[in-house]
Amino acid sequence: MAKRITIDPITRIEGHLRIDCEIEGGSVTNAWASGQMWRGIETILKGRDPREAWIFTQRFCGV
Amino acid sequence: MNDQKADTSQEPVSTLDRLREQGVSRRDFLKFCTGVAVALGLPLGMGEAIAEAVANQKRPPVLWLSAQECTGCTESLLRSNHPTFEKLILELISLEYHETLLAGCGKQAEDWRVKSMKENKGRYILVVDGSIPVKDNGIYCKIGGKTAQSLLEEMGAQAAAVIAIGSCASWGGIPSADPNPTGATSAHEVLKMKGITTPVVNIPGCPPNPYNFLSTVLHLLTFRKLPELDEQARPKFAYGRLIHENCERRPHFDSGRFAVQFGDEGHRKGYCLYKLGCKGPETFANCPSILYNDVGAGAWPVGTGHPCFGCTEKGVGFTVPLHYPARPKYITPPTFFTEAYPGKPEVAPGTKALAAGVAGAVIGAAGAAMLTGLGKKDDENKDKEE
Q: What interface predicted TM-score (ipTM) does this complex get?
């Protein structure tokens, strides 16, 4: 029977990351990484003046 | 984090000793505190009071909650060019929880948050960066399986004060831009919806100036209360004046000298950026006076030749299109102009402000360069009335 481990939050990175691992016989057999935050910037950009797109896109990540 | 904690919990050395170890002399520290006192609009002598308050008490515990953020606020704090700044901020506060900076992960991190909250109940400062999504029960931001909304409610209720850093936490910022797909909301709105009355101070900006944040923390430490706030809960010392009032390009505005296109002659000569969509006339912030990154004059958006886009102002930044002209509804005379004719008897007090208001209406309506000789125009109007 596989054991499942969840590490959430993953720290020392920018954003909100979660890792799920399935462990069987001492080794990882399956793993999932998932972003835990969504702002919908693609949706926000739709229909805007292209000259101001950079104001939004440059703020995907501040690191 | 846990190892580091073992050291600080004993608190055997004073803040000054710790700073000395970091290569910050007492003199540097006092200079820094005096600078903060000046930024806060306090008398010079208050620098010493701040230094004393900081040196003689246990560092205030700070828990940092990140919601829908880009970490730009944290970066602006940590990557300041001033060599001692990041040391100072990390030595002045005890940063208990911060997702990006914590060494421990997952359960370790969350256990530490809960433990620290319990130990410092009612005493800690909660810093929030990023907006909080409330649409669909807040599922668009989760930390350790809990929504940012529920974490803010839990952590905000037990905090001594909440500092919302950045435009997102202050008024929604970029995630709240139309059509606001996630219901991104400011920290104070989320607390208000839940009836939580912990005092909130907003430090908007994208990113905000680190000195405005630090000055607010030091004010809290020294006087045990928040600085004076405006109606949007922003500290008045930092957000009391329009960008337009202190802008180094203001004389060009008043004389009708504008850049009309990027790279044109006016732009190259450093003329006013109003016609390129500068939102300085409707944005309250101290950017032109405090500048960024300690690299000297001109280190702020307008100084580098780009119009202000109003990031500190709800309803302007990320809302009004970038190149759409500002709506200068609160035009006021610049702070550094003197009366053209001091003591001239027929100019009633306030006429100058009124004239500026009229000029604002003119540019607002026609967008034309009709600002040459504000004072003269005023006098002409006066003559007509008489």
A: 0.94
